[in-house]
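#structure-requests
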Amino acid sequence: MFSVPETKTKTRLAFGMLAYAFAAIMVGTTLPTPMYALYGEQMHFAVLTTTVIYATYAGGVLFALLAFGRWSDAIGRRPVLLAGVVFAVASAAVFLVAHSVSMLLVGRVLSGLSAGIFTGTATAAVIEAAPENWRTRAAAVATVANIGGLGTGPLLAGLLVEYAPGPLHLSFIVHIVLALLAGAAVLIVPETSQRTGSIGVQRLSVPAEVRTVFVIAALAAFAGFAVTGLFTAVAPSFLSQVVGITNHAVAGLIACSIFAASAVAQVAARTMNPQRAVAIGCAILVAGMVILAVALHFSSLAGLIAAAVVSGIGQGISFPAAWPPSPSAPRPAVAPRSAPLTSSSRMWQSRCRSSVRDSPPGGGDCRRPV
C-alpha cells in the first residue's frame, strides 16, 4: 500500500544525492584558486607559472573526455562516477603534500581527469534519476550543481585560507571529506544507465554542411572558457598586485561571482535561440573584458567584481556548460546519453530541425555530430 510513495521518496533521494555528488566533485576543480598567490610565495614562481599550472587542468579534462566519454553508456554511470571520485581524492591528496611546482601540475592533471570523467556522466545520471515532476527542470539542476560547485570552490577555499588554520591544507582535507561523501552517495543510489553501446575512444568529427556553424559556436565556447580561466587563474594576482587587496576571501568571492553569474544566465537563457545566444553572449563577454581593463587601470575592486559578473553572464549565455536534451524529448540518433549538448550542437540541431521540416517525408535525419 505504501510502495508508490516509498518509490517516489527513493527517486527524489537519488536525484538529490547525485546532484550533491556532482557539485562536491566540481568544488575541488576550482579550490586552489585563492591559494596560487601563497604557492607562488612559497615556491618562488610568478603569474606565468600559475597560468601553466592552471592550463594542465584543461589537458586532463580533454584527455578524459576523449578517452572515457562513452564509457558510462557501456558499463554504467556508477563505476565511471566512482573513478571520478577517486581522481578527485587523489588530486586533493597530492595538493596536501605538494612542495614543488611539479606536484602542483600533477594535482591539476588529476583534477582535470576527475572533471572530464564526471561532467558528462553526472549530468546524464542526474537527469535520468529525476522524479517525474522534475524532468523538465533536471537539466537546470545539473547545470546549477556543476557551475555551483565550480563557484563554491574558490569561495570556500578563500574563507578557509583567510580565517582558518592550515591555509594550504585545510581546504583539501574538507574536499576529501566532501568527495568521500559523494562516493558514498554514488554507491547508494541505483544505477540509472541501461548499459548500451561499447567502450571506445570518442571520435571527433563535424559534418561538412555544418562546419561554419560549428566554428562560430566553438570560437564562442573558447572565448567563454578563456575568460573564466582568466578569472580563476590570475584574478587573485590582479587583486593583490594591482588593486592592493590581499584578502584571500575577497579573491575567492571574485572567482565565485563569475560562476554564479554564469549559472543564473544559463538557466535564464536556455530557451533562447542558439544563434542569438552566441551573438549576445559574445558581446557581453567583450563588455566584461572592457570593464576588466578599466578596473585594472583604476585599481578598482568594484570594477573587478563587475567585470567578473558581466563576463559570467556572457559566458553563461554563449556557452552553457551542459545542456542535455530533456528526457521527455526524443534523443539524437547517434548521441551517447552521457554526452552533454553544447552551444555548437544546439545551434546545429536548430538548423537541422529547420531543414528537416522543409524536406520531404523520410528525407531528414538530425543526427548530432560527435
